[in-house]
Structure formats: structure tokens, C-alpha cells
């Protein structure tokens, strides 16, 4: 932080200043630059402490003192405020770019964003230690769980927002609920169902099962939901981890999809599209996210337009992202 004054510096102030204007500058300089307390300034200038307090307040009010904060975080705070205003967000966190991004996303940037998201989740748990927290899975959310260092909250409940089983394994390698629940001492709940059912009819049968319905009801009633945002491309983890096929991705894109949130594809306006994957997905309905405190997490410039679309559709009102995406959203 830098402090500058419009008046000349004074290393040795006289005991009797000739007038309030000069006394104001001298008092301000001794306080902000000389780092003297008000009692010391009063003794130096031969004034009362009340008078010194008024002179310092006047220096601020009249613009004699200019305070400039020069920490790198200031620029991120400015971006956060701009994003909140531009997209009507309730909250936003932007992490500085690492300068290591090459093919759309760097592991360093992802880690920075994951740490910020983990801290946000920890604050939410601290604020409501008996709350329900619905979490998705994926590479970003796995990093969030890894970075989580929150308080103990044995009454907290953590639940998956979508099916946890995949075509390739009995349990998803990116499941985060267990890890966060373990670190808080809370309870973890899983959807004992696949992310995608084979058919729409199979999905209907699955969600009618008591154990699945219980977990879904809990997730639907969550106080806070958090998920990563993915792009609708072959680089998306849904494709690279073989959670969906390239054909299923083409079908989603043909329906207008530009990205996904919690495994649900949405279009450029942030509306969830009518595609085969969305119809067969087992999980919290898309509109549920809009009706509660939902946090979107994203890093890497390739996700910029997906994040923009999600914000337009108000899928989430709290964004945690990196500087690259933030500047892209603001066209800077």
C-alpha cells in the first residue's frame, strides 16, 4: 500500500503551526508516512489529540491524502467486482494466472482455482456445520476435494449430485464426496446408480428405487451445490474418461450444447438441452441448481464460452475461476 500527500513532507514540525491547512498536512504526513500515533503527533505539534484526530480526518475528506493499494490481489478483486456487475453474480473469486497455460488449461491454474473453491466450501461448512452440501465429480472437483482443509463438522452431510457409477468401473475414480466427508468427519451419501442409464426407461426404474430416491431427495434439498463446468468438446473429461461416447457428444452438440454442468448439457443461452445424455442421466434436475446457492468452478481458456453460457442461463450465481477466463468473459 502506498500513501501520498498533496502537501510537502515535514520531518520536523514546528510546535505552533501557522494555520489549520498547514497543520492538517503536517499531521497527516506524520501519521501516514512518519507512522506516529496521534498522541505522539499531538505532542510534536503542541495540539490536543482531539484536534489531531480532526486534522487527519479532514486530510482524508479533502483529498490531501491519497492511499493506493498495490498488492497483485487488487487486480483480481477488480475483476471479481466487474464480473458480479456484468452477470448479476452473488459472489465471484478470481485466481491470478500462472502464465503456464499452453493447451487451454494448466495444472497450476487448476490447482489455484481448486484451492479457492475448497476454501469457499470450507467457509460454507463453517457457516452451516449441520448443512447439506451437494457435490459433483470430475477432474476439477477431485482437485477441490484434494485441497479441502475445512473445519470438523460431524453433522454435515455431503451428497453426490449425479450417479457415481460408470461403464468402466464399480466406482468413479473422481468421486469427491467420500474424501470431503472424511476430512470433515461428516456423512457421505452416494447415488447408487450409474451416471447414465442404458435407456430412459431404465433411468425411470432407477430413480424410483428407494435408496436412489433417498439420495436424490437429499441432494435436491442441499443448502449449497458445487460443480465444475466443462466444454462440449472431445477434450471434455466426460469424453476422455469414456463417461460418454463421441456419438453421444455429437448428439448433444446437435441439440445446441456448448458445455455441461454436473453432467447436464446446456446451450449458448444456458438452457439445458433436450439430448439423449440429459434424458438418461441420473441426478439432480437442472432447474434445482438455479433455486439454491450453486457454485460453478472452472479453469482454462477453452471453458470461457461454456462459463459465459452458464452465467447467461443463471445456472449458478457464484463463480470461482481463473484470470484467463475472467478476462475472456469481460472481453479484456
From TrEMBL:
InterPro entries according to UniProt: NagB/RpiA_transferase-like, SorC_transcr_regulators, Sugar-bd_dom_put, WH-like_DNA-bd_sf
Superkingdom field: Bacteria
Membrane-traversing stretches: none
Sequence ranges assigned to domain Sugar-binding in this UniProt record: 74-330
Keywords associated with the record: DNA-binding, Transcription, Transcription regulation
KW Transmembrane (keyword) present: no
Gene3D superfamilies in the record: 3.40.50.1360, Winged helix-like DNA-binding domain superfamily/Winged helix DNA-binding domain
SUPFAM superfamilies: NagB/RpiA/CoA transferase-like
GO molecular function: carbohydrate binding; DNA binding
The keyword GTP-binding belongs to this UniProt entry's keyword annotation: no
Protein family per UniProt: Belongs to the SorC transcriptional regulatory family.
Name this protein carries in UniProt: DNA-binding transcriptional regulator
Amino acid at each position: 500500500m502506498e500513501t501520498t500527500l498533496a502537501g510537502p513532507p515535514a520531518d520536523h514540525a514546528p510546535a505552533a503551526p501557522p494555520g489549520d491547512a498547514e497543520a492538517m498536512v503536517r499531521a497527516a504526513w506524520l501519521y501516514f508516512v512518519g507512522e506516529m500515533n496521534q498522541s505522539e503527533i499531538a505532542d510534536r505539534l503542541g495540539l490536543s489529540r482531539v484536534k489531531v484526530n480532526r486534522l487527519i480526518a479532514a486530510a482524508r475528506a479533502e483529498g490531501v491524502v491519497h492511499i493506493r493499494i498495490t498488492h497483485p490481489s487488487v487486480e483480481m478483486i477488480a475483476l471479481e467486482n466487474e464480473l458480479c456487475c456484468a452477470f448479476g453474480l452473488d459472489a465471484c473469486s478470481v485466481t491470478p494466472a500462472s502464465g503456464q497455460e499452453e493447451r487451454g488449461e494448466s495444472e497450476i491454474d487448476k490447482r489455484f482455482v481448486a484451492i479457492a473453491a475448497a476454501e469457499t466450501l470450507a467457509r460454507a461448512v463453517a457457516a452451516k456445520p449441520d448443512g447439506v452440501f451437494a457435490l459433483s465429480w470430475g477432474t476439477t472437483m477431485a482437485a477441490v476435494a484434494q485441497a479441502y482443509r475445512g473445519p470438523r463438522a460431524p453433522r454435515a452431510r455431503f451428497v453426490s449430485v449425479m450417479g457415481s457409477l460408470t461403464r468402466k468401473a464399480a466406482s468413479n475414480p473422481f468421486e469427491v464426496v467420500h474424501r470431503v466427508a472424511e476430512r470433515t468427519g461428516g456423512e457421505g451419501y452416494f447415488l447408487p446408480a450409474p451416471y447414465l442409464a442404458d435407456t430412459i426407461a431404465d433411468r425411470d426404474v432407477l430413480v424410483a428405487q428407494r435408496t436412489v430416491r433417498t439420495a436424490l431427495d437429499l441432494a435436491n434439498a442441499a443448502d449449497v451445490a458445487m460443480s465444475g463446468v466443462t466444454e462440449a468438446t472431445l477434450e471434455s473429461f466426460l469424453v476422455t474418461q469414456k463417461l460418454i461416447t463421441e456419438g453421444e457428444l455429437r448428439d448433444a452438440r446437435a441439440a445446441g450444447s456448448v458445455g455441461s454442468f454436473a453432467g447436464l448439457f446446456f446451450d449458448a443461452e444456458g438452457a439445458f438441452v433436450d439430448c439423449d445424455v440429459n434424458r438418461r442421466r441420473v441426478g439432480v434436475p437442472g432447474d434445482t441448481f438455479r433455486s439454491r446457492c450453486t457454485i460453478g468452478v472452472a479453469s482454462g481458456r477453452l471453458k470461457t464460452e461454456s462459463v459465459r453460457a452458464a452465467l447467461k442461463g443463471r445456472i449458478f450465481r457464484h463463480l470461482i475461476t481463473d484470470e484467463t477466463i475472467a478476462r475472456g468473459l469481460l472481453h479484456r
